[in-house]
UniProtKB/TrEMBL annotation:
It comes from Mesohalobacter halotolerans. Residues 31-120 form the SusE outer membrane protein domain. GO terms for cellular component: outer membrane. It holds the Pfam family SusE. InterPro entries: SusE. This is SusF/SusE family outer membrane protein.
Length: 401
């Protein structure tokens, strides 16, 4: 009898243990009454220019703050895309447990072409339900190369994305993209680098007429600049877009690095000596950075420097008079013009409204000019134009309208 009772007791205990295990397996999150909304912190560009030549480049790095779920747990995040902004059938672009995620040009391009139906063929246009071209206010067909893309970030409590897991969803981010054709125009997607920091004229203001540095037209991943820097000590970084902190370039363990490579902001560049003139060289291919002192004591300080040529007017009348540039109050060897409308044509720089001292070169957008050099080719558009008389270098920064 005792044996039978013992066996029955063991069976009951086993059944109780099995029920307990089952209850553990069915554990469900206790959702907080209110979940904090996920907040995206990166700034978006006005327009994203997408080119097949720049597929590997980072188009945007989404960053956000960790939302408060009211409980301690891991959080998994999805970057989602919606073709119409409703997110009824979102496409997950990427997932992470960090608070940032990058999307490159190729990913944006593929979404824009396969989901949004855009293309970079200059001969195709938007059409209505009848297949007729849609016209703009001027009566011209609207190219089928640009549109709005909708993104959001969704954070889920835990890493398994259980059905009952609470979510925190960001506001919708709208990226306006334009696909560049392959028959010219791809040059506008080239990377520019701008100075920022307390060693430079704009200080740590990322949208204060920040000077660009010169991109080598023979090697588009090498940049140089010679000019005045503050020291004792003073620091600076390089930005790819004025008005935005990402992407930014600096140092990591002594090597050149970008925020896109690191997933965080790099360290600053430091001026090794006191206030003075220095030459810097940035080589993205080899991840190197070099800074050397520069003796400008024997250099001429000009009273005026201007831009002249058919590009200023659209015809040869532009060769008859200079458009004077503004001399930097921080560095008298640096000259600029902002928001300058130029036409298809050619241009040169010259000093004191006279041909005795003039500079030119045969490369668009950036270059190393020389006395009596060739005319600079210019494509129609609106530009910020910079000229450095110490190194006879120039940069045309095209502004997108």
């Amino acid at each position: 009898m005792k044996n039978k009772f013992l066996i029955l007791t063991i069976i009951c205990l086993g059944l109780f243990g099995l029920k307990s295990c089952t209850d553990d397996d069915n554990f469900r999150f206790q959702t907080p009454a209110e979940v904090e909304q996920l907040t995206i912190t990166n700034s978006l560009l006005g327009e994203y220019l997408l080119s097949t030549q720049t597929f590997p480049n980072i188009a945007e790095r989404f960053t956000w703050e960790t939302p408060d779920f009211g409980v301690e747990s891991n959080i998994s995040y999805n970057l989602e895309y919606s073709v119409d902004g409703t997110f009824e059938n979102p496409i997950v672009v990427g997932s992470t447990t960090e608070t940032q995620l990058s999307i490159n040009v190729e990913q944006l391009w593929n979404l824009a072409t396969t989901e949004l139906g855009l293309d970079n063929d200059p001969e195709t246009f938007l059409v209505d339900d009848n297949g007729d071209p849609i016209l703009d206010e001027a009566g011209n067909p609207i190219p089928n190369d640009s549109g709005e893309m909708f993104f959001r970030v969704v954070g889920d409590l835990g890493t398994n994305e259980a059905d009952n897991s609470p979510s925190s969803i960001s506001d919708v981010q709208i990226l306006f993209v334009r696909l560049l054709s392959n028959d010219g125009g791809g040059e506008v997607a080239l990377r520019n680098l701008f100075l920022v920091g307390d060693a430079t004229a704009p200080g740590w203001d990322n949208n204060n007429n920040n000077p660009p540095i010169v991109r080598d037209p023979e090697n588009q991943n090498v940049y140089t600049f010679t000019g005045k820097f503050l020291g004792d000590p003073a620091a600076f970084k390089l930005l790819e877009q004025r008005g935005a902190w990402q992407p930014q370039w600096g140092l990591s363990e002594g090597a050149l690095a970008s925020s896109e490579d690191l997933g965080s902001d790099p360290d600053v560049f430091n001026i090794p000596g006191g206030e003075g003139y220095y030459s810097i060289t940035v080589d993205i291919d080899n991840a190197t950075f070099d800074i050397q002192s520069f003796d400008e004591s024997g250099s001429t300080t000009f009273a005026t420097i201007g831009i002249i040529g058919s590009a200023t007017t659209g015809d040869d009348s532009g060769w008859s008079a200079d458009m004077d540039m503004t001399q930097s109050t921080f560095d008298p060897h640096l000259w600029y013009m902002t928001g300058l409308e130029l036409f298809d044509g050619e241009a040169k720089f010259r000093a004191d409204d006279d041909w005795a001292v003039n500079w030119g070169a045969n490369t668009e957008l950036t270059g190393f000019a020389s006395q009596d050099g060739p005319n600079i080719p210019v494509a129609a558009g609106t530009y910020d134009v910079w000229f450095n008389d110490l190194t006879e270098t120039y940069v045309f920064v095209r502004l997108e309208e």
